[in-house]
Each structure stands twice: as C-alpha cells, then as structure tokens.
C-alpha cells in the first residue's frame, strides 16, 4: 500500500537511534506523581498534586520508616507525623497534628466512593484509612491506593467492593467511607487532548488513545459487543513520558496487523513504539 511504503521510507531515513526503543502500547505503566505546586502551609490549603507528592515522599523512603503507632517520621519540611495509617494521611494532607481514624472526619467532608479523586481517603473509622491514588478502571470500581497499615508503606490495588473476599487492605469494604480534605484545592482531573482512533487491542473494534498535559497516555478500549453497547468505558493508563513528543501518529508501521505509534520530537527525530 502506498501509505505504508511512504511511512517505511520516512522511518528508514529519520528513525535513527529510535530503532530498538520500543514499548508495547498495551502494557500498563504506572505514572509518577505530577510535580507538586507551591508548598502549602501547615493546616492550610493544599493542591492534589502536593498531597500526592507528600505521600510519595514517605513511599520513596519506606525502607527507613517502620510502622509504629508510637513512632514518628518527618515530612519534606521536617515536621513529624505518627508512623501509622492515619498519621500517613495526616502527613499527606499536611495537617497541624496527626489525626486518627476516629476524628479524620472533623477535617474532611464525606463524599460518594465513586467521586474519589487523587488525594482523597477511604476511612474505616474504627479500623484503618488509605489514601486514594488513582482510578485504574472507574467503571468496575478498580483503583490504586497508598497504605501504611504495616511495614512498609505500600501501593496496592483493589475494588470498591473488596473483590471476592469483600476486603480492602484486610478490612471490610463496607466499613469504609470516602473522605475529601476540606482544604484541598483543584479538581484533580487532567483533561485528555488530541485523541485518535486505533484498534490498539486487535479485536476489530476502534479504540481511543489520548495523552494528557502531564505526558501520560490513556487507552479507552472498545468492544461494542462485550461492553453491552457502551463503548469506551474501560479506561486505563498505558504509558508516561509522551510530553516529549510534539506529534504522535498511529500506523501499522511493521505490517503485523496491530496499530503502532510513531512519536516525533522537536529535533525532528522519529521514534517507533511497536505494538503486538
């Protein structure tokens, strides 16, 4: 086909070092937290980006922070917080003191679980609290979260109903309520931009792929029959670092029947990300 010949010729001339640097588009890659906005004051307004950055700080230093209800560890600014689940959320929210699961509701508003955004919390008042990180598939209630219920701080995945055992992080899912810190600012939602159509999953149905301003890439998969005539409800992040490309083109560059991606950088180099 003429289009494929032109694409192959262009790749042969300009791809250069990009050959061999391929990544399967269908593989899920967890994105790093976005850079935090200007630092908040203790107990003051705080952005969702900063909450996630603070949570990640303890996660990155988890080898030095053993779980203890009588222990303490500093935040980036040197303020100490208790090293347990509620102390961890207190640190992420930059509270003036370490709260506990029974009184976190005094600094937060209860919301519906399906409205959770990065930096919100799921709190079981008599037992445990976790910090919501992101939706993996909101239509099925699958999400990722930070937890400090034991050593070390961890990132884990679950569903709002707790899956087959009905538990979220070893506690009954039905006991959790969703909380939003009253001083959080920002929606936490980054809109997608420049979506394009491609059968990424190879099932014969057109999917949507889009990037966000933070460089993350998202797949909105579509199987009209499987999804009960409701396409694009299965949403998941499939990559990071796409902010380095001025333009992304979808094409079956290697002729294997699957849609590949070609990224073009500002310096004119072209990079192939093959997909099978």
From TrEMBL:
It comes from the Bacteria. This is Repeat domain-containing protein. It comes from Micromonospora marina.
């Amino acid at each position: 086909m003429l289009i494929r010949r032109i694409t192959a010729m262009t790749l042969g001339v300009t791809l250069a070092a990009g050959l061999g640097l391929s990544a399967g588009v269908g593989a899920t890659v967890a994105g790093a937290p976005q850079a935090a906005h200007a630092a908040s004051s203790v107990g003051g307004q705080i952005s969702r980006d900063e909450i996630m950055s603070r949570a990640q700080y303890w996660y990155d230093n988890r080898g030095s922070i053993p779980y203890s209800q009588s222990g303490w560890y500093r935040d980036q600014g040197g303020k100490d917080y208790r090293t347990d689940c509620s102390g961890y959320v207190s640190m992420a929210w930059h509270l003036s003191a370490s709260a506990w699961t029974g009184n976190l509701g005094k600094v937060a508003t209860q919301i519906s679980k399906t409205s959770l955004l990065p930096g919100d919390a799921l709190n079981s008042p008599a037992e445990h609290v976790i910090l919501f990180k992101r939706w993996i598939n909101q239509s099925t209630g699958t999400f990722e979260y930070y937890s400090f219920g034991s050593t070390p701080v961890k990132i884990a995945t679950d569903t709002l109903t707790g899956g087959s055992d009905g538990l979220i992080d070893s506690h009954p899912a039905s006991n959790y309520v969703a909380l939003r810190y009253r001083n959080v600012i920002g929606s936490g939602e980054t809109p997608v931009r420049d979506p394009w159509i491609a059968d990424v999953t190879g099932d014969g149905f057109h999917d949507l792929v889009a990037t966000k301003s933070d460089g993350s890439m998202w797949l909105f998969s579509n199987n009209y029959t499987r999804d009960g005539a409701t396409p694009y409800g299965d949403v998941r992040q499939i990559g990071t670092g796409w902010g380095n490309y001025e333009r992304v083109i979808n094409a079956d560059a290697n002729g294997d029947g699957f849609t590949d991606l070609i990224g073009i950088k500002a310096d004119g180099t072209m990079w192939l990300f093959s997909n099978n």
